[in-house]
Design goal:
By secondary structure, the protein is mainly alpha-helical. The chain folds into two domains: 72 residues, no CATH class; 196 residues, MetI-like fold. Helix content is 76%, strand content 0%. It is built from 14 helices and no strands. Helix 5 runs antiparallel to helix 6 and helix 11 packs across helix 12.
Length: 334
Protein backbone atom coordinates (compact mmCIF):
# COMPACT_ATOMS: atom_id res chain seq x y z
CA UNK A 1 0.00 0.00 0.00
CA UNK A 2 2.86 2.38 0.85
CA UNK A 3 4.47 1.75 -2.54
CA UNK A 4 1.15 2.54 -4.24
CA UNK A 5 0.88 5.86 -2.40
CA UNK A 6 4.49 6.83 -3.27
CA UNK A 7 3.90 6.04 -6.97
CA UNK A 8 0.72 8.07 -7.02
CA UNK A 9 2.39 11.05 -5.34
CA UNK A 10 5.22 10.92 -7.88
CA UNK A 11 2.70 10.84 -10.71
CA UNK A 12 0.85 13.74 -9.07
CA UNK A 13 3.99 15.88 -9.16
CA UNK A 14 4.51 15.18 -12.86
CA UNK A 15 0.87 15.95 -13.64
CA UNK A 16 1.01 19.27 -11.77
CA UNK A 17 4.13 20.36 -13.66
CA UNK A 18 2.47 19.57 -16.98
CA UNK A 19 -0.71 21.30 -15.86
CA UNK A 20 1.19 24.44 -14.91
CA UNK A 21 2.63 24.67 -18.44
CA UNK A 22 -0.74 24.12 -20.13
CA UNK A 23 -2.51 26.48 -17.73
CA UNK A 24 0.07 29.23 -18.24
CA UNK A 25 -0.21 28.92 -22.02
CA UNK A 26 -4.03 28.77 -21.98
CA UNK A 27 -4.41 31.87 -19.82
CA UNK A 28 -2.20 33.93 -22.09
CA UNK A 29 -4.01 32.66 -25.16
CA UNK A 30 -7.27 34.21 -23.97
CA UNK A 31 -8.38 37.10 -26.20
CA UNK A 32 -7.95 40.55 -24.74
CA UNK A 33 -5.48 42.46 -22.62
CA UNK A 34 -5.60 42.33 -18.78
CA UNK A 35 -4.28 45.91 -18.59
CA UNK A 36 -7.12 47.19 -20.78
CA UNK A 37 -9.63 45.10 -18.77
CA UNK A 38 -8.39 46.72 -15.57
CA UNK A 39 -8.33 50.31 -16.83
CA UNK A 40 -11.56 50.06 -18.84
CA UNK A 41 -12.62 53.25 -20.60
CA UNK A 42 -9.80 55.16 -18.91
CA UNK A 43 -7.15 53.10 -20.69
CA UNK A 44 -4.33 55.17 -22.18
CA UNK A 45 -1.11 53.96 -23.82
CA UNK A 46 0.85 55.17 -20.79
CA UNK A 47 -1.47 53.48 -18.32
CA UNK A 48 -1.44 50.22 -20.25
CA UNK A 49 2.37 50.30 -20.39
CA UNK A 50 2.54 50.90 -16.62
CA UNK A 51 0.24 47.99 -15.77
CA UNK A 52 2.00 45.71 -18.26
CA UNK A 53 5.40 46.46 -16.74
CA UNK A 54 4.11 46.17 -13.16
CA UNK A 55 2.94 42.59 -13.69
CA UNK A 56 5.78 41.58 -15.97
CA UNK A 57 3.62 41.05 -19.06
CA UNK A 58 6.24 42.83 -21.18
CA UNK A 59 8.78 40.06 -20.51
CA UNK A 60 9.27 37.03 -22.79
CA UNK A 61 6.74 34.26 -22.12
CA UNK A 62 9.38 31.77 -20.99
CA UNK A 63 10.70 34.26 -18.47
CA UNK A 64 7.20 34.94 -17.19
CA UNK A 65 6.69 31.19 -16.72
CA UNK A 66 9.95 30.73 -14.81
CA UNK A 67 9.04 33.65 -12.56
CA UNK A 68 5.59 32.15 -12.04
CA UNK A 69 6.99 28.72 -11.07
CA UNK A 70 9.63 30.28 -8.80
CA UNK A 71 6.96 32.24 -6.95
CA UNK A 72 4.81 29.11 -6.53
CA UNK A 73 7.74 27.18 -5.05
CA UNK A 74 8.04 29.96 -2.45
CA UNK A 75 4.31 29.79 -1.77
CA UNK A 76 3.53 33.06 -3.55
CA UNK A 77 0.63 32.72 -5.97
CA UNK A 78 0.46 36.42 -6.70
CA UNK A 79 -2.29 38.98 -6.17
CA UNK A 80 -5.44 39.75 -8.10
CA UNK A 81 -4.97 42.35 -10.82
CA UNK A 82 -8.45 43.70 -10.16
CA UNK A 83 -8.55 43.84 -6.33
CA UNK A 84 -4.92 43.53 -5.28
CA UNK A 85 -5.81 40.84 -2.73
CA UNK A 86 -3.46 37.84 -2.44
CA UNK A 87 -4.77 34.86 -4.41
CA UNK A 88 -4.21 32.47 -1.48
CA UNK A 89 -6.19 34.69 0.92
CA UNK A 90 -9.13 34.99 -1.46
CA UNK A 91 -9.07 31.26 -2.19
CA UNK A 92 -9.15 30.33 1.51
CA UNK A 93 -12.07 32.72 2.05
CA UNK A 94 -14.14 31.34 -0.82
CA UNK A 95 -13.06 27.70 -0.96
CA UNK A 96 -15.19 26.53 2.03
CA UNK A 97 -18.39 27.61 0.26
CA UNK A 98 -17.56 25.54 -2.82
CA UNK A 99 -16.41 22.53 -0.80
CA UNK A 100 -19.53 22.66 1.37
CA UNK A 101 -21.74 22.74 -1.72
CA UNK A 102 -19.76 20.01 -3.53
CA UNK A 103 -19.75 17.72 -0.49
CA UNK A 104 -23.50 18.19 -0.02
CA UNK A 105 -24.10 17.34 -3.69
CA UNK A 106 -21.81 14.30 -3.53
CA UNK A 107 -23.38 13.00 -0.30
CA UNK A 108 -26.82 13.35 -1.87
CA UNK A 109 -25.66 11.50 -5.00
CA UNK A 110 -24.09 8.66 -2.98
CA UNK A 111 -26.88 8.21 -0.43
CA UNK A 112 -29.53 8.08 -3.14
CA UNK A 113 -27.56 6.73 -6.11
CA UNK A 114 -25.98 3.58 -4.67
CA UNK A 115 -29.14 2.17 -2.98
CA UNK A 116 -31.28 3.09 -6.00
CA UNK A 117 -28.82 1.50 -8.42
CA UNK A 118 -28.63 -1.64 -6.29
CA UNK A 119 -32.41 -1.99 -5.98
CA UNK A 120 -32.84 -1.38 -9.71
CA UNK A 121 -30.38 -4.19 -10.45
CA UNK A 122 -31.89 -6.78 -8.09
CA UNK A 123 -35.38 -5.94 -9.40
CA UNK A 124 -34.38 -5.78 -13.04
CA UNK A 125 -37.25 -5.18 -15.40
CA UNK A 126 -39.58 -3.91 -12.67
CA UNK A 127 -41.12 -0.49 -12.29
CA UNK A 128 -38.32 0.69 -10.00
CA UNK A 129 -35.69 -0.37 -12.53
CA UNK A 130 -37.49 1.43 -15.34
CA UNK A 131 -37.91 4.52 -13.16
CA UNK A 132 -34.23 4.52 -12.17
CA UNK A 133 -33.00 4.10 -15.76
CA UNK A 134 -35.36 6.76 -17.11
CA UNK A 135 -34.56 9.16 -14.29
CA UNK A 136 -30.82 8.70 -14.75
CA UNK A 137 -31.11 9.48 -18.45
CA UNK A 138 -33.07 12.62 -17.63
CA UNK A 139 -30.53 13.63 -14.99
CA UNK A 140 -27.66 13.42 -17.48
CA UNK A 141 -29.29 15.37 -20.31
CA UNK A 142 -30.79 18.24 -18.27
CA UNK A 143 -28.18 21.05 -17.96
CA UNK A 144 -27.21 22.00 -14.42
CA UNK A 145 -27.85 25.69 -15.11
CA UNK A 146 -31.41 25.05 -16.35
CA UNK A 147 -32.20 22.73 -13.44
CA UNK A 148 -30.85 25.27 -10.96
CA UNK A 149 -33.03 28.05 -12.38
CA UNK A 150 -36.07 25.72 -12.45
CA UNK A 151 -35.61 24.58 -8.84
CA UNK A 152 -35.09 28.15 -7.69
CA UNK A 153 -38.22 29.38 -9.42
CA UNK A 154 -40.53 26.53 -8.37
CA UNK A 155 -39.37 25.65 -4.85
CA UNK A 156 -37.95 28.96 -3.66
CA UNK A 157 -39.84 31.75 -5.43
CA UNK A 158 -43.24 30.19 -6.12
CA UNK A 159 -43.61 27.85 -3.12
CA UNK A 160 -41.23 29.54 -0.71
CA UNK A 161 -39.98 26.26 0.74
CA UNK A 162 -36.30 27.17 0.54
CA UNK A 163 -34.18 30.36 0.48
CA UNK A 164 -33.57 31.85 -2.94
CA UNK A 165 -29.89 32.72 -2.64
CA UNK A 166 -26.83 33.01 -0.45
CA UNK A 167 -25.39 30.66 2.17
CA UNK A 168 -27.16 31.93 5.28
CA UNK A 169 -29.82 34.43 6.31
CA UNK A 170 -28.13 37.78 6.94
CA UNK A 171 -30.39 38.33 9.97
CA UNK A 172 -28.78 35.41 11.81
CA UNK A 173 -25.90 36.48 14.03
CA UNK A 174 -23.74 33.42 13.38
CA UNK A 175 -20.18 32.80 14.51
CA UNK A 176 -17.94 31.69 11.65
CA UNK A 177 -14.93 29.71 12.82
CA UNK A 178 -14.01 27.71 9.72
CA UNK A 179 -16.19 29.40 7.07
CA UNK A 180 -17.99 26.06 6.64
CA UNK A 181 -21.34 27.41 7.78
CA UNK A 182 -23.00 24.09 8.64
CA UNK A 183 -19.95 22.93 10.59
CA UNK A 184 -19.58 26.31 12.31
CA UNK A 185 -23.12 26.08 13.63
CA UNK A 186 -22.45 22.63 15.04
CA UNK A 187 -19.14 23.62 16.62
CA UNK A 188 -20.59 26.71 18.28
CA UNK A 189 -23.92 24.99 19.10
CA UNK A 190 -25.79 27.64 17.15
CA UNK A 191 -28.33 25.13 15.88
CA UNK A 192 -30.49 27.71 14.12
CA UNK A 193 -27.51 28.95 12.11
CA UNK A 194 -26.51 25.41 11.15
CA UNK A 195 -30.06 24.48 10.10
CA UNK A 196 -30.42 27.68 8.10
CA UNK A 197 -27.16 26.89 6.28
CA UNK A 198 -28.50 23.41 5.48
CA UNK A 199 -31.70 24.91 4.03
CA UNK A 200 -29.61 27.22 1.84
CA UNK A 201 -27.69 24.18 0.58
CA UNK A 202 -30.65 22.02 -0.43
CA UNK A 203 -31.51 23.52 -3.83
CA UNK A 204 -27.92 24.13 -5.00
CA UNK A 205 -26.96 20.60 -3.94
CA UNK A 206 -29.93 19.12 -5.79
CA UNK A 207 -28.99 20.98 -8.96
CA UNK A 208 -25.26 20.30 -8.74
CA UNK A 209 -25.70 16.67 -7.67
CA UNK A 210 -28.16 15.73 -10.43
CA UNK A 211 -25.55 14.55 -12.95
CA UNK A 212 -23.36 12.64 -10.42
CA UNK A 213 -26.51 11.04 -9.04
CA UNK A 214 -27.61 9.87 -12.47
CA UNK A 215 -24.15 8.50 -13.28
CA UNK A 216 -23.80 6.69 -9.94
CA UNK A 217 -27.21 5.05 -10.41
CA UNK A 218 -26.25 3.72 -13.83
CA UNK A 219 -22.76 2.58 -12.80
CA UNK A 220 -24.05 0.89 -9.63
CA UNK A 221 -26.84 -0.86 -11.51
CA UNK A 222 -24.51 -2.15 -14.23
CA UNK A 223 -21.86 -3.23 -11.72
CA UNK A 224 -24.34 -5.08 -9.49
CA UNK A 225 -25.87 -6.86 -12.48
CA UNK A 226 -22.40 -8.03 -13.52
CA UNK A 227 -21.54 -9.27 -10.02
CA UNK A 228 -24.89 -11.06 -9.62
CA UNK A 229 -24.00 -13.26 -12.59
CA UNK A 230 -20.61 -14.28 -11.13
CA UNK A 231 -20.02 -17.85 -9.99
CA UNK A 232 -19.17 -16.97 -6.39
CA UNK A 233 -22.56 -15.28 -5.92
CA UNK A 234 -24.43 -18.26 -7.31
CA UNK A 235 -22.36 -20.53 -5.09
CA UNK A 236 -23.22 -18.46 -2.03
CA UNK A 237 -26.90 -18.62 -2.94
CA UNK A 238 -26.68 -22.39 -3.42
CA UNK A 239 -25.12 -22.77 0.05
CA UNK A 240 -28.17 -21.06 1.53
CA UNK A 241 -26.41 -17.98 2.89
CA UNK A 242 -28.68 -15.23 4.13
CA UNK A 243 -29.66 -12.69 1.51
CA UNK A 244 -28.22 -9.83 3.57
CA UNK A 245 -24.85 -11.58 3.87
CA UNK A 246 -24.72 -12.19 0.12
CA UNK A 247 -25.64 -8.60 -0.64
CA UNK A 248 -23.13 -7.10 1.79
CA UNK A 249 -20.12 -9.41 1.41
CA UNK A 250 -20.39 -10.79 -2.09
CA UNK A 251 -22.34 -8.29 -4.18
CA UNK A 252 -21.91 -4.75 -2.89
CA UNK A 253 -18.26 -5.07 -1.92
CA UNK A 254 -17.28 -6.31 -5.39
CA UNK A 255 -19.57 -3.84 -7.14
CA UNK A 256 -18.14 -0.80 -5.35
CA UNK A 257 -14.81 -0.65 -7.24
CA UNK A 258 -16.18 0.99 -10.41
CA UNK A 259 -18.45 3.15 -8.25
CA UNK A 260 -15.41 4.40 -6.29
CA UNK A 261 -13.69 5.30 -9.56
CA UNK A 262 -16.78 7.21 -10.64
CA UNK A 263 -16.87 9.13 -7.35
CA UNK A 264 -13.29 10.28 -7.82
CA UNK A 265 -13.97 11.48 -11.34
CA UNK A 266 -17.14 13.28 -10.28
CA UNK A 267 -15.21 15.57 -7.94
CA UNK A 268 -13.86 17.44 -10.96
CA UNK A 269 -17.35 17.65 -12.44
CA UNK A 270 -18.74 19.03 -9.19
CA UNK A 271 -16.07 21.70 -8.88
CA UNK A 272 -16.57 22.79 -12.49
CA UNK A 273 -20.36 22.64 -12.24
CA UNK A 274 -20.19 24.83 -9.14
CA UNK A 275 -19.39 27.80 -11.38
CA UNK A 276 -22.92 27.84 -12.80
CA UNK A 277 -24.68 26.74 -9.62
CA UNK A 278 -23.00 29.39 -7.47
CA UNK A 279 -23.89 32.03 -10.04
CA UNK A 280 -27.60 31.13 -10.01
CA UNK A 281 -27.85 30.99 -6.21
CA UNK A 282 -25.47 33.93 -5.51
CA UNK A 283 -23.02 31.83 -3.49
CA UNK A 284 -19.66 33.49 -2.94
CA UNK A 285 -17.50 30.49 -3.77
CA UNK A 286 -14.57 29.92 -6.08
CA UNK A 287 -16.88 29.17 -9.00
CA UNK A 288 -18.44 32.62 -9.15
CA UNK A 289 -15.04 34.24 -8.57
CA UNK A 290 -13.47 32.26 -11.41
CA UNK A 291 -16.32 33.32 -13.68
CA UNK A 292 -15.55 36.97 -12.92
CA UNK A 293 -11.79 36.38 -13.32
CA UNK A 294 -12.28 35.01 -16.84
CA UNK A 295 -14.29 38.10 -17.78
CA UNK A 296 -11.62 40.47 -16.47
CA UNK A 297 -8.58 38.40 -17.59
CA UNK A 298 -7.27 38.26 -14.03
CA UNK A 299 -4.26 36.00 -14.78
CA UNK A 300 -3.04 35.39 -11.19
CA UNK A 301 -6.52 34.42 -9.99
CA UNK A 302 -7.13 32.08 -12.92
CA UNK A 303 -3.74 30.40 -12.58
CA UNK A 304 -3.88 30.10 -8.79
CA UNK A 305 -7.49 28.95 -8.44
CA UNK A 306 -7.35 26.38 -11.24
CA UNK A 307 -4.08 24.99 -9.88
CA UNK A 308 -5.59 24.72 -6.38
CA UNK A 309 -8.63 22.92 -7.78
CA UNK A 310 -6.37 20.54 -9.71
CA UNK A 311 -4.47 19.67 -6.52
CA UNK A 312 -7.74 18.96 -4.69
CA UNK A 313 -8.97 16.81 -7.56
CA UNK A 314 -5.69 14.87 -7.67
CA UNK A 315 -5.66 14.30 -3.91
CA UNK A 316 -9.25 13.04 -3.96
CA UNK A 317 -8.36 10.57 -6.70
CA UNK A 318 -5.35 9.48 -4.62
CA UNK A 319 -7.75 8.74 -1.76
CA UNK A 320 -9.92 6.78 -4.18
CA UNK A 321 -6.91 4.71 -5.25
CA UNK A 322 -6.10 4.01 -1.59
CA UNK A 323 -9.71 2.99 -0.93
CA UNK A 324 -9.33 0.26 -3.56
CA UNK A 325 -6.99 -1.55 -1.17
CA UNK A 326 -9.68 -1.66 1.49
CA UNK A 327 -12.46 -2.66 -0.89
CA UNK A 328 -10.40 -5.29 -2.75
CA UNK A 329 -7.23 -6.55 -0.92
CA UNK A 330 -5.81 -7.79 -4.23
CA UNK A 331 -5.14 -4.18 -5.25
CA UNK A 332 -2.64 -3.77 -2.38
CA UNK A 333 -0.09 -5.98 -4.06
CA UNK A 334 -0.49 -4.58 -7.58
Amino acid sequence: MLALIVRRLGLLAVVLVGLSVLLFAWVRALPGDPARALLGEKATPEGIATITARYGFDQPVWQQYLTYVGNIVRGDFGASIQTGEPVVTTFLQRFPATIELSVAALVLAVLVGIPLGYLAAVRRGGWLDNLAVGGSLLGVVVPVFFLAVLLKYLLAIELGWFPTSGRQDARIDATHVTNFYVLDGLLTREWDASWDAVLHLVLPALALGSIPLAIIVRITRASVLEVLSDDHVRTAQAKGLARGVISRRHVLRNALLPVSTTLGLQVGALLSGAVLTETVFSINGIGSYLFAAVSTLDYPVLQGFILFIAVVFALVNLLVDISYGFIDPRVRVS
